[in-house]
Amino acid sequence: MNTLQGKVAYITGGSKGIGYGIAKALLDSGMNVAITSRSIETAQQAAKSLGSGTKVLALRSEVNSLEDEQKAIDATIAHFGQLDVVIANAGIGHFAPIQDMTEAQWKETIDTNLTGVFNTVKSGIEALKASKGYIITIASLAGTNFFANGAAYNASKFGLVGFSQAIMMDLRQFGIKVTTIMPGSVATNFGGHTPGNEDTWKIQPEDIGEMVVDLLKMHPRTLPSKIEVRPSMPGKS
Protein backbone atom coordinates (compact mmCIF):
# COMPACT_ATOMS: atom_id res chain seq x y z
CA MET A 1 0.00 0.00 0.00
CA ASN A 2 1.37 3.42 -1.00
CA THR A 3 0.81 5.66 2.01
CA LEU A 4 1.71 8.80 0.01
CA GLN A 5 -0.73 8.25 -2.88
CA GLY A 6 -2.95 11.30 -3.36
CA LYS A 7 -1.39 13.39 -0.60
CA VAL A 8 -0.54 17.03 -1.27
CA ALA A 9 2.76 18.85 -0.81
CA TYR A 10 3.52 22.56 -1.08
CA ILE A 11 7.15 23.33 -2.02
CA THR A 12 8.65 26.81 -2.01
CA GLY A 13 11.38 27.37 -4.57
CA GLY A 14 10.24 24.21 -6.31
CA SER A 15 11.14 25.27 -9.84
CA LYS A 16 14.82 24.25 -9.67
CA GLY A 17 17.56 22.70 -7.57
CA ILE A 18 16.65 20.93 -4.35
CA GLY A 19 13.01 21.99 -4.55
CA TYR A 20 12.64 20.55 -8.04
CA GLY A 21 14.36 17.33 -6.97
CA ILE A 22 11.93 16.99 -4.06
CA ALA A 23 8.93 17.72 -6.29
CA LYS A 24 9.92 15.00 -8.74
CA ALA A 25 10.46 12.44 -5.98
CA LEU A 26 7.07 13.19 -4.43
CA LEU A 27 5.31 12.99 -7.78
CA ASP A 28 7.00 9.66 -8.46
CA SER A 29 5.62 8.50 -5.10
CA GLY A 30 2.06 9.30 -6.11
CA MET A 31 1.66 12.69 -4.46
CA ASN A 32 0.27 15.94 -5.83
CA VAL A 33 2.55 18.96 -5.55
CA ALA A 34 2.33 22.74 -5.71
CA ILE A 35 5.61 24.45 -6.58
CA THR A 36 6.36 28.14 -6.21
CA SER A 37 8.75 30.58 -7.77
CA ARG A 38 9.05 34.35 -7.72
CA SER A 39 8.15 34.14 -11.43
CA ILE A 40 4.95 32.40 -12.51
CA GLU A 41 6.53 31.69 -15.91
CA THR A 42 9.44 29.90 -14.24
CA ALA A 43 7.07 27.88 -12.07
CA GLN A 44 4.96 26.93 -15.09
CA GLN A 45 8.02 25.85 -17.09
CA ALA A 46 9.14 23.65 -14.21
CA ALA A 47 5.66 22.16 -13.84
CA LYS A 48 5.65 21.31 -17.56
CA SER A 49 9.12 19.78 -17.25
CA LEU A 50 7.94 17.60 -14.35
CA GLY A 51 5.41 16.17 -16.78
CA SER A 52 2.69 15.12 -14.36
CA GLY A 53 -0.22 17.16 -15.73
CA THR A 54 -2.88 18.01 -13.20
CA LYS A 55 -0.80 16.58 -10.35
CA VAL A 56 1.41 19.72 -10.42
CA LEU A 57 0.22 23.24 -9.61
CA ALA A 58 2.50 26.17 -10.49
CA LEU A 59 2.25 29.25 -8.29
CA ARG A 60 3.96 32.62 -7.93
CA SER A 61 4.94 33.69 -4.43
CA GLU A 62 7.57 35.80 -2.71
CA VAL A 63 8.32 33.94 0.52
CA ASN A 64 9.28 37.20 2.25
CA SER A 65 5.60 38.18 2.00
CA LEU A 66 3.21 36.55 4.46
CA GLU A 67 0.31 37.64 2.26
CA ASP A 68 1.84 35.94 -0.80
CA GLU A 69 2.48 32.72 1.09
CA GLN A 70 -1.04 32.63 2.55
CA LYS A 71 -2.53 33.13 -0.92
CA ALA A 72 -0.34 30.38 -2.37
CA ILE A 73 -1.21 27.93 0.41
CA ASP A 74 -4.91 28.77 0.03
CA ALA A 75 -4.66 28.24 -3.74
CA THR A 76 -3.05 24.84 -3.15
CA ILE A 77 -5.86 23.76 -0.84
CA ALA A 78 -8.52 25.13 -3.20
CA HIS A 79 -6.98 23.17 -6.11
CA PHE A 80 -6.24 19.85 -4.42
CA GLY A 81 -8.68 19.93 -1.49
CA GLN A 82 -6.12 19.37 1.26
CA LEU A 83 -2.56 20.02 2.45
CA ASP A 84 -0.39 17.29 3.95
CA VAL A 85 3.21 18.40 3.58
CA VAL A 86 4.97 21.79 3.54
CA ILE A 87 8.55 21.96 2.24
CA ALA A 88 10.16 25.31 3.09
CA ASN A 89 13.00 25.22 0.59
CA ALA A 90 13.37 28.67 -0.99
CA GLY A 91 16.66 30.33 -0.13
CA ILE A 92 19.38 32.68 -1.35
CA GLY A 93 23.00 33.41 -0.47
CA HIS A 94 25.00 36.62 -0.27
CA PHE A 95 28.62 36.05 0.72
CA ALA A 96 30.98 38.87 1.69
CA PRO A 97 33.06 39.97 4.67
CA ILE A 98 30.98 42.00 7.09
CA GLN A 99 32.82 45.24 6.23
CA ASP A 100 31.71 44.87 2.60
CA MET A 101 28.21 43.45 3.08
CA THR A 102 25.42 45.89 2.33
CA GLU A 103 22.30 46.38 4.39
CA ALA A 104 20.24 45.26 1.39
CA GLN A 105 22.17 41.98 1.13
CA TRP A 106 21.76 41.33 4.85
CA LYS A 107 18.03 42.02 4.81
CA GLU A 108 17.36 39.96 1.68
CA THR A 109 19.18 36.96 3.14
CA ILE A 110 17.38 37.08 6.48
CA ASP A 111 14.00 37.95 4.93
CA THR A 112 14.20 35.01 2.52
CA ASN A 113 16.00 32.29 4.46
CA LEU A 114 14.49 32.88 7.89
CA THR A 115 11.45 35.17 7.82
CA GLY A 116 10.39 33.49 4.59
CA VAL A 117 10.23 30.12 6.34
CA PHE A 118 8.20 31.68 9.16
CA ASN A 119 5.74 32.99 6.56
CA THR A 120 5.46 29.60 4.83
CA VAL A 121 4.98 27.68 8.07
CA LYS A 122 2.57 30.22 9.55
CA SER A 123 0.40 30.05 6.43
CA GLY A 124 0.12 26.26 6.50
CA ILE A 125 -0.38 25.49 10.18
CA GLU A 126 -4.17 25.31 10.31
CA ALA A 127 -4.41 23.00 7.29
CA LEU A 128 -1.62 20.80 8.67
CA LYS A 129 -3.42 20.53 12.00
CA ALA A 130 -6.37 19.06 10.12
CA SER A 131 -4.25 16.56 8.18
CA LYS A 132 -1.73 15.89 10.97
CA GLY A 133 0.84 16.76 8.38
CA TYR A 134 4.55 17.28 8.02
CA ILE A 135 6.80 20.36 7.75
CA ILE A 136 10.30 19.97 6.33
CA THR A 137 12.65 22.94 6.29
CA ILE A 138 15.76 22.93 4.11
CA ALA A 139 18.56 24.44 6.15
CA SER A 140 22.28 23.82 5.58
CA LEU A 141 25.42 22.62 7.25
CA ALA A 142 26.05 26.38 7.38
CA GLY A 143 23.47 26.29 10.17
CA THR A 144 26.04 24.69 12.45
CA ASN A 145 29.40 25.41 10.78
CA PHE A 146 30.39 29.06 10.47
CA PHE A 147 32.86 30.36 7.88
CA ALA A 148 34.45 33.61 6.69
CA ASN A 149 32.24 35.75 4.42
CA GLY A 150 29.19 33.92 5.80
CA ALA A 151 27.80 36.46 8.28
CA ALA A 152 24.38 36.78 6.65
CA TYR A 153 24.09 33.22 5.38
CA ASN A 154 25.32 31.66 8.65
CA ALA A 155 22.97 33.86 10.66
CA SER A 156 20.00 32.90 8.51
CA LYS A 157 20.73 29.17 8.61
CA PHE A 158 21.70 29.03 12.31
CA GLY A 159 18.41 30.84 12.92
CA LEU A 160 16.50 28.45 10.67
CA VAL A 161 17.82 25.40 12.51
CA GLY A 162 16.80 26.93 15.85
CA PHE A 163 13.42 27.97 14.48
CA SER A 164 12.76 24.50 13.08
CA GLN A 165 13.62 22.73 16.32
CA ALA A 166 11.48 25.12 18.37
CA ILE A 167 8.41 24.73 16.16
CA MET A 168 8.93 20.98 16.26
CA MET A 169 8.32 21.24 20.01
CA ASP A 170 5.34 23.56 19.50
CA LEU A 171 3.56 21.57 16.81
CA ARG A 172 3.99 17.92 17.72
CA GLN A 173 1.12 18.31 20.22
CA PHE A 174 -1.12 18.74 17.15
CA GLY A 175 0.28 15.67 15.41
CA ILE A 176 2.40 17.79 13.05
CA LYS A 177 5.92 16.49 12.48
CA VAL A 178 8.81 18.88 11.78
CA THR A 179 12.21 17.96 10.37
CA THR A 180 15.04 20.18 9.20
CA ILE A 181 17.43 18.83 6.58
CA MET A 182 20.93 20.34 6.60
CA PRO A 183 22.71 19.57 3.32
CA GLY A 184 26.34 20.23 2.55
CA SER A 185 27.48 20.67 -1.06
CA VAL A 186 24.61 20.07 -3.49
CA ALA A 187 24.87 20.22 -7.28
CA THR A 188 22.47 23.11 -7.97
CA ASN A 189 22.43 26.56 -9.55
CA PHE A 190 22.77 28.16 -6.11
CA GLY A 191 24.88 31.30 -6.17
CA GLY A 192 24.86 31.41 -9.97
CA HIS A 193 26.74 28.11 -10.32
CA THR A 194 25.94 25.89 -13.29
CA PRO A 195 26.22 22.18 -12.37
CA GLY A 196 28.52 20.15 -14.59
CA ASN A 197 30.64 17.01 -14.69
CA GLU A 198 32.87 18.44 -11.99
CA ASP A 199 29.93 18.27 -9.56
CA THR A 200 29.32 14.52 -9.65
CA TRP A 201 30.89 14.16 -6.19
CA LYS A 202 28.27 16.45 -4.68
CA ILE A 203 24.88 15.54 -3.26
CA GLN A 204 22.35 15.57 -6.11
CA PRO A 205 18.89 17.19 -5.77
CA GLU A 206 17.24 13.80 -6.30
CA ASP A 207 19.14 12.48 -3.26
CA ILE A 208 17.39 15.04 -1.07
CA GLY A 209 14.11 14.12 -2.76
CA GLU A 210 14.66 10.47 -1.86
CA MET A 211 15.37 11.48 1.73
CA VAL A 212 12.12 13.44 1.94
CA VAL A 213 10.14 10.45 0.66
CA ASP A 214 11.78 8.23 3.28
CA LEU A 215 10.87 10.72 6.01
CA LEU A 216 7.24 10.85 4.91
CA LYS A 217 7.02 7.05 4.91
CA MET A 218 8.51 6.68 8.38
CA HIS A 219 6.27 5.35 11.15
CA PRO A 220 4.38 8.23 12.83
CA ARG A 221 5.83 7.33 16.22
CA THR A 222 9.36 8.23 15.07
CA LEU A 223 10.64 11.72 14.24
CA PRO A 224 14.13 12.46 12.90
CA SER A 225 14.03 16.13 13.89
CA LYS A 226 17.38 17.24 12.43
CA ILE A 227 19.39 15.56 9.67
CA GLU A 228 22.89 16.53 8.55
CA VAL A 229 23.76 15.25 5.08
CA ARG A 230 27.03 15.66 3.24
CA PRO A 231 28.85 14.15 0.27
CA SER A 232 30.33 10.77 1.18
CA MET A 233 33.67 11.87 -0.29
CA PRO A 234 35.05 15.41 -0.54
CA GLY A 235 35.55 16.98 -3.93
CA LYS A 236 39.02 17.21 -5.46
CA SER A 237 40.45 20.70 -5.62
Automatic annotation (TrEMBL):
<dbReference type="InterPro" id="IPR002347">
    <property type="entry name" value="SDR_fam"/>
</dbReference>
<dbReference type="GO" id="GO:0032787">
    <property type="term" value="P:monocarboxylic acid metabolic process"/>
</dbReference>
<protein>
    <submittedName>
        <fullName>SDR family oxidoreductase</fullName>
    </submittedName>
</protein>
<dbReference type="InterPro" id="IPR036291">
    <property type="entry name" value="NAD(P)-bd_dom_sf"/>
</dbReference>
<dbReference type="InterPro" id="IPR050259">
    <property type="entry name" value="SDR"/>
</dbReference>
<comment type="similarity">
    <text>Belongs to the short-chain dehydrogenases/reductases (SDR) family.</text>
</comment>
<dbReference type="InterPro" id="IPR020904">
    <property type="entry name" value="Sc_DH/Rdtase_CS"/>
</dbReference>
<dbReference type="Pfam" id="PF00106">
    <property type="entry name" value="adh_short"/>
</dbReference>
